[in-house]
Every structure is written in structure tokens, then in C-alpha cells.
TrEMBL record, chains A, B:
Lipoprotein listed as a keyword: no
Name by which UniProt lists this protein: Phosphate acyltransferase
Record Gene3D superfamilies: Isopropylmalate Dehydrogenase
Top-level lineage group: Bacteria
Gene name for this UniProt entry: plsX
UniProt subunit comment: Homodimer. Probably interacts with PlsY.
Enzyme Commission designation: 2.3.1.274
Enzyme class: transferase
Gene Ontology biological-process entries: fatty acid biosynthetic process; phospholipid biosynthetic process
Amino acid sequence: MRVILDAMGGDNAPYVPVLGAVQAVKEFGYKVFLVGREEAIKKELDKYSFPVSSIEIVNAEDVVSMEDQPSEILKKKRNSSLHVGAKLLKSGEGDVFVSAGNTGAVMAVSLFTLGRIKGIDRPAISAILPNLKSQTFLLDVGANVDCKPVHLFQFAIMGEAYARYVLKEENPRIGLLSIGEEDTKGNELTKGTFKLLAKAREKGLNFVGNAEGRDIYNGNFDVIVCDGFVGNVCLKLSESVAKILAKILKEEIEKHFISRLGALTLLPAIKGFKKRIDYAEWGGAPLLGLKKPVIIAHGSSNAKAIKNALRVGVEFAETKVVEHIEENMEKYGKIDGN
Amino acid sequence: MRVILDAMGGDNAPYVPVLGAVQAVKEFGYKVFLVGREEAIKKELDKYSFPVSSIEIVNAEDVVSMEDQPSEILKKKRNSSLHVGAKLLKSGEGDVFVSAGNTGAVMAVSLFTLGRIKGIDRPAISAILPNLKSQTFLLDVGANVDCKPVHLFQFAIMGEAYARYVLKEENPRIGLLSIGEEDTKGNELTKGTFKLLAKAREKGLNFVGNAEGRDIYNGNFDVIVCDGFVGNVCLKLSESVAKILAKILKEEIEKHFISRLGALTLLPAIKGFKKRIDYAEWGGAPLLGLKKPVIIAHGSSNAKAIKNALRVGVEFAETKVVEHIEENMEKYGKIDGN
């Protein structure tokens, strides 16, 4: 597979993206296009050895910063690594585009360049979260802060395709994030969405019903949909709870002498624990609803996270999720009043 | 102080509330009115020894279940422990009312019986959450699932009074839960709320700005406001993340022989850790916006959680938060277009 990587995106670009790309071509055998300022990328690449034909630099002079407003970028930075990368994807020279840059900008430029899947009103950013059994596919986590029921309904249809074909769930269990299990619980948005999903259930969609905050991590659902405001709050809250609990545990260990002695023997367990909750293991966030696959990686990604984001991107492209979303729209998307 | 306790509320009533009351009168010296079916309460009370004059039973024949709809309870169960308890509070025979019953029902009956503070449109349920430094006061966590900016604005004013007088924060830092620190980030609701809070800041309210999901537990804010849908999702998500991380850690310890040996020495640390994240230590959720103090305890409260809910209730009453909310409304509540 041929991956297009924004070499200028993220907190430590181009150092981190270049190193992530080198690791990915060596470990997975991908072909990677590094898009960005040629000189800067070349300087980084020269540090490493790798099969020469596997990495190609594509020059793009403009650099998008975290402070740039998406609307400004569309107008004024037309030769940015985002624009050049998205165009390469559109023209078919690569199979997937990955960026750890400014989320709003990646979203805006990708949408502008690639266009939406027919029938999908709003693309969504998703998160693949580890749960007790496997993983939960949560969307939207930040692209759409004010939604209507039809948007959440479409998120469910897109999530179903991703969970089925990429995460290999045979018949993905779909949940609607709400504040009670009962069908009648929720706010105006979720109550409206519930009705649409219940209709799609009659056509075969495996809509289980309302999910609660606790269901994101307990493995009772494969796909959970919510608006981008709620999803983003959940994502940031989870990251912080995990960090804070680790810190409290550490403080308690340091308080008790006997525990301090025992803590050394715990190192293998703590390492396994960290690996299971470390986002770097899970890679980037698929952007769903566009005509081609795009992955948004965390701005603070390290090289390993970039490498894994490329892997997630290749799975996204290989499994033809875009086509499967189109099939799902055909199957479930036509609903009265929708 | 005189506490009115719903003896019929919660998963194991009247066993748990009665035991919690006995522990509270012994440890704190409160006077407790146990409201509910006299026979059932008496049977439980007979198991324990305590200063006889400190506990009094007030009979109420109707029992509210978790399945009862709030509107039905108002009409059909007028002699429920909720009605009788709220009336005792209204008449001044007690200082605070505590219930671990059906949240919607406690809310509805309390609102109906006690009425709202002048100028407050919607009472809110709050949660006192442990953070890295002290605690965060989060509201609303479930009473109001669809809110307008003015409601969140009033939550902030109420939260300020609680944090200042009960949690003893000198100048409580108030945050608006959103999806980015920048003033312009958020959805329609938070953007509208931001404007109202910014106006109150000119009058002296310590509104710091937007908070993110991670700020609920990191101690950067004393009060965080959000709508009841988002707050409820956050609360349930946090409880589950904590439980799941503990489970993952346990699994990892069991996987590694050397860690298994060391785990024994960790017991004191793990005990301290559990104590710090255990909701039972923190007691119930203050219901703010009513003319008298009401506390809603967790439905699955054990006796210790009930005892601590009574303590939280007494602090709520003693510090005269209701009067301080009225003062805050006078000071900050009159805003153009509000």
C-alpha cells in the first residue's frame, strides 16, 4: 500500500513523522510519500537507513500551524502539505492520507479536496478505544459540535462499516450514547436519533439501544455514536482519568514502605498495563464520510504512534471501508423524513 | 443539626439507610428523622444500640420504586417517604433532607414541595469529585438534559456559593466545560453561556474560561458547569474508567509471577488508592436551586455512603448555601438579555 504522510504535522515535525515513516517502511513494507518542505525532510531522512525506493519526498512549501483558522488555510495556504497530500490521494497516487496536524485544518482541507460520500451530510472523526474485551469505535469525537438526529444516524451507519470490515466484528453492536438504558431516556437529540436507528433496525442494522458513559470501556458495544462535543469531552476525560489514577497509585506506593519494596516486582505488570492503555499503540483517528480514507493522528504523537497511524490508515484503505459505507447508505440510509 | 432521611430509598432499604443513620448519630451526634414504613424501620432499628432520643421514626405508607415515573408519584403516592420527608423539611422540623431513592422522583417531589430559589429557573444535581489537589464541584449531572445558556449561567452562580461556603475555596475558579481552552471553542450552548459568564466576570465572578474533559480531575477548576446530559455521561464514564483500570492492573499482576509475589506488599497502597477514588467516602450529591437543602445519595449506597451523605447534607445546611445563592443571584444574576 502507498501511504501519503504529512511530514509537517504534529508537535515535533518533521522529526517525528519522518522517523515514524522510516519505522513503518521497515516493519510493514509500505511505500510512503512524505509531503512537506523538501530540505527539512531530506535533512531528517539522511539520519536513517531504509530501502531507498520505499520513501519519496513530495515538496510543499506552506506549513499549517496549530493556530491557523481552517477557513484561512483554504484561502491562503494552498500549497500546504495538507493540500498537496490530499490532492495526491485524490489523484490516486496514494491510497490513504495521514496527518498529525491541526485537526480542524486536516478536516477542512480533506473535505474541500476529496468531497463527501453521497448521502453523508457531515464527516466524523472517530476514536478506536481499548475496552475490556476488544475495542469500542466511538464517533463523532470532535468534528461536529452541534448535531441533528440525522447526523448521528449517519455516524452509526459509517461506524458499522468500519467495525465490520476493519475491526472484524461479525455483526457490530451499535449503541447510542445517552444517560439511561431505557429507550425513553436522553435529550432531544438522542431521542430523535433513537427513532431513526430503530427504523434502520427493522432493515437489519444491529442497533442495540442506548449506551451509557460506562459502556464506552466495558465492551458491551462495538460502535457508540454521539455528537462531537460529547465525544470530545469523553475522550479527554478518559485520558486524564487514566493518568490521574496512575499518579494516585504511584503516590500511595511511595507512602507505604512495604509497598515501595514490592513495587519493583510489579514492573512487568505496570509495563503491560501502560501498553494496554497507551494511545500510541492504537494509532490515529479515522475520518469517516469522505470519498477517500484519511487518518488524523494525535498532535503529540511520537514516532511509534505515527507508525501505528500508518498501519491503521492502510487497514482503512485495504478493507475498502468507503465502498462499504456507500453500501450501508444504500441499505439503511433511506428513511422516511430523513 | 436535624437530618431527615428517606428510610425507603436505595437498593437495600430500609436496612442500609437505618444502619447509616445509626452510624451517623453515633459518630457525629446528629438528630435523625427516619421517614418510611414504621414497622419495617423499627425492625431494623431494634438491631442496634444508640442514644434513643437521637433517632425518631416518621411514618409514611407509600413506597416509591425505581420504576415509578416522577409525574405519577406526584399524583398517586402523596404519602410516600419522599413527600413526608420534604414536607418535614419545609415546615422547619428538620434542616436537610437526604434520599438514596429514584433520582427523578426525589427531584420532582422536592421541587413541588419546596419550590425554587427566586430567579433560578432549573434546580441542578451536582457531584463533588476528588481531584489531584482537592475536589471539583461539577453540575449539572443529570437533572436537565436540554439546557439554554441562562441555565448553565445559573449553575455557575449556584456552584460558586457551594464551593465558597461548603468546600471552603476562597475565590472559586469557575470553568465552562467545552472542547478547547480558547474562548471561541464550543457548541452553541457553551458559546452562549460564555458570553453571560464573561459579563458576570466584570462584576467579580471568578470565571476562568473554558474547561476541558481533562480538567474535571486535574484540579485546575473548583466549579465546572455543563448540561445534565454531558455531566451524567462524564460521571458514569469516570466511574467505569476507574473500575476498568483497576481490573486491567489486576489482570497484569496475575499474568506475571514476580508481580504476583510483589502484589501482597502492595495491599496498603491499593487500600489507600481505593479510599481516594471511592464515591462512598464522598457522600451524596447536593441538589441546588431549591429553597431548602436536599441531598441525593447513590442508589447503591452502602451504610458508610449514607453516613457521609448525611454529613454532606449537614454541611450544606449549616453553611446556609441557599441564602448565599440568593446573594449571588442578587450580585451576578441580573444581566441584560437574561
